[in-house]
């Protein structure tokens, strides 16, 4: 139902032949990152690509007034940071951790060498890149034409999809995102978001456990998001 706005290349690695996987694994250097730690920043030159083993990463832009707009969230199993290398440009956005994360780094030279050796990896990565840009463009266009309440509902549905895993029942999925980050994703003030979330709780659409949010009524949230 919201699949065209959900981009996930977490299965890309699984689709590779064993030889191609070995090339990547040998080139990877893994590091633990703390919550709110920057991975790379807008305007800097790329020196490699990243693979998210565990955790969540936000991709965002900062406007001239210093306001942050989250445009994408990466989940475990996704590659990121490679578009700048392929386009031979600086990073056009900033990424940082939303929670403690484990991230593998592949140097630019190793990445380009693997691309030359693996036609399968090259094809899958280019396909994923094209899809990611298409999804982000569609999402931004949709959010810009919706009310804050509609954007909040849609953002919760998207986040639910990002936080689920294959072995987790739908009713147990908790969205663990700070109210500041959620407000930045919705594109509104934190106070406005708080009022909307309180309304959603009163309407029994969601339940909050600390800062974590559980969706109770998907059908009504989809209706509020004006998304079918």
UniProtKB/TrEMBL annotation:
GO cellular component terms listed in the entry, alphabetical order: cytosol
InterPro entries per UniProt: cNMP-bd_dom (IPR000595), cNMP-bd_dom_sf (IPR018490), Env_Response_Regulators (IPR050397), HTH_CRP (IPR012318), RmlC-like_jellyroll (IPR014710), WH-like_DNA-bd_sf (IPR036388), WH_DNA-bd_sf (IPR036390)
GO molecular function: DNA binding; DNA-binding transcription factor activity; kinase activity
Superkingdom in the source lineage: Bacteria
Pfam entry (one): HTH_Crp_2
Keyword DNA-binding: yes
Keywords per UniProt: DNA-binding, Kinase, Transcription, Transcription regulation, Transferase
Keyword DNA-binding: yes
Domain HTH crp-type residues, every copy: 146-219
Residue ranges annotated for the Cyclic nucleotide-binding domain, each copy included: 12-115
SUPFAM superfamilies: cAMP-binding domain-like (SSF51206), Winged helix' DNA-binding domain (SSF46785)
This protein's name: Crp/Fnr family transcriptional regulator
């Amino acid at each position: 139902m919201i699949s065209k706005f959900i981009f996930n290349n977490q299965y890309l690695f699984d689709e590779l032949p064993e030889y191609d996987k070995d090339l990547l694994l040998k080139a990877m250097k893994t590091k633990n990152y703390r919550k709110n730690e920057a991975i790379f920043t807008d305007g800097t030159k790329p020196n490699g690509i990243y693979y998210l083993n565990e955790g969540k990463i936000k991709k965002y832009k900062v406007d001239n007034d210093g306001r942050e707009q989250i445009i994408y969230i990466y989940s475990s199993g996704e590659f990121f940071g490679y578009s700048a290398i392929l386009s031979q440009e600086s990073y056009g956005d900033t990424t940082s951790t939303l929670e403690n994360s484990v991230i593998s780094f592949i140097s630019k030279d190793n990445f380009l060498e693997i691309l030359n050796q693996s036609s399968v990896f090259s094809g899958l990565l280019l396909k994923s890149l094209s899809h990611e840009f298409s999804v982000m463009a569609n999402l931004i266009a949709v959010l810009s034409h919706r009310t804050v309440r509609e954007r909040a509902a849609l953002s919760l549905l998207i986040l639910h999809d990002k936080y689920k895993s294959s072995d987790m029942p739908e009713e147990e999925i908790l969205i663990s995102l700070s109210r500041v980050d959620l407000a930045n994703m919705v594109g509104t003030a934190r106070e406005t978001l708080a009022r909307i979330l309180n309304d959603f709780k009163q309407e029994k659409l969601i339940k909050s456990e600390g800062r974590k949010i559980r969706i109770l009524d998907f059908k009504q949230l989809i209706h509020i998001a004006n998304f079918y």
